[in-house]
Each structure stands twice: as C-alpha cells, then as structure tokens.
Amino acid sequence: MIHQSVTNKPSPAPANPVTLKRIFERQWLHLLLLVLLLGGLAPAVRSDPVRVGVLFGLATPIWIVVALILAVTHQSYVWFCWRTQLHASLLTRTFGDRGFPLYATGFAILALSRITSVVMVAAANRGTVPLDLTGLRVLAVVMTVPVIYLFYSVHRYFTFRRAFGVDHFDPSYHSRPLVRRGIFRFTRNGMYVFGLLMAWLPGLWYASAAGLVLALFNHAYVWVHYFATERPDMKRIYPKVMATPQPPA
C-alpha cells in the first residue's frame, strides 16, 4: 500500500539546510528558462494575428494570460509536491495515506485546466493561420495517433500512478526498472516527446495562431520541468538505472 513504508517510520526531522537545498535544486534553471520563454513569447503575443478574437466575452490576450498562469501553476505545484515529499515526506506526514491521492487529484485538475485553457485560446483566435483548414485538421488527426498510443502505453505498461509521480511517495518503486515497452521502446521520455502533442491539436484544428504559439510555449516549458525537476529527482530515486547509459531520447 502506498506510504506504508513511510508511515511506519518515525517522522523525519524538520527541514534543514541540506533538505532545503535539495528541494530547490536546479530551480534557478527553472526560473531562468521560464523568464526567457516568456520574454520570447512577448513579441508573438503582441502581433495582430495572435491578439484577435473573443470567446465567452473574453478577448484572446486574456485567455492567453489564463493559460500561462495555469501552465506555471501546474509545473510549480508538481515541483513543490514532488520535492517536499521526496526530501521531507511533507505530504505523507501531513495527510498520511491520503497524501498521494490528494496530490494526484490536484495534478489532474491542473493538467485538465491547462489543456482546456489552450482549447479556449485556440477557439477564441480561430481562423488566424492563413493555411488550408482541411490540411491542418488532417495533420491534427495524424498527431492524435501517437498521443493515443502514449495513453495506451501508460495504461498498459507504465500506469497513471507512476506517470503522476508515485515513485516520489512509495519507496518500493525505487528498485523497479524503467519501463521500456509500448511507446517507451522508442524513447524513455514518451510523456514529453508525445504527450505534449496534445497542446498542438487545438491550434491546428481551429487554425489558430495564438493556439500554436501557446502550444510551442507549453511544449518547451514541459522540457524545463524535465531538466530542472524530474531528471534530478530520477537520479536520486533510480541512481543505478540513471547511471547506466540509456538509448537516446
């Protein structure tokens, strides 16, 4: 059962400088790259094709701001929960066996809200890409195929619990091998390579310049999460596996 090996141990000592250092490990990189991404996004957001459109009474720039806030909130939430649990068992000390389910619920709500906000941006800004709509929609359908295969692979081989980050909560996962089946046969970073293709679908479907700009931001920003948060965590959770040379992503 999740947390059993954690909750049976004495509560860890309060956070010390070493723990805080590990919690904030490489977050300077997260902040730096986020600032650079937002700076690069600014000229595009100021352009006319990206600014036009209204949905439910809100102009496209407002929807873009909402989408950006949700993206940053989502990834900051995951960083905080993962790191404070991994290095201080904060969630399981506070909520016991409910720690992971509560975290996973928050993750799901933020992830769905993040994707929904991209759809809202694209719908508000529809028809601003001067390309054949049928061709763009065919491309969207084609890109849906690896996304569906990814979700099948996660369900069949990886599990959604592990995708949410249960290995930060349950030490029994630390001795398990990394998954190399399904879509993970082709890349160990299936969630990052194929999962964020979802962000491109609304912009293609609605021929939305703003939707495509936001998709590019989201796809780049999720790699910031990988290099600033997930990869350092993986090296601590799976030190032997991560030390072994892996096939390229």
From TrEMBL:
Membrane-traversing stretches: 28-46, 52-80, 100-123, 135-152
Entry's Gene Ontology cellular component terms: endomembrane system
UniProt membrane topology term: Multi-pass membrane protein
Keywords: Membrane, Transmembrane, Transmembrane helix
Principal subcellular localisation of the protein: membrane
Compartment(s): Endomembrane system
Pfam family, one: PEMT
Name under which the protein is recorded: NnrU domain-containing protein
Organism, as annotated: marine metagenome
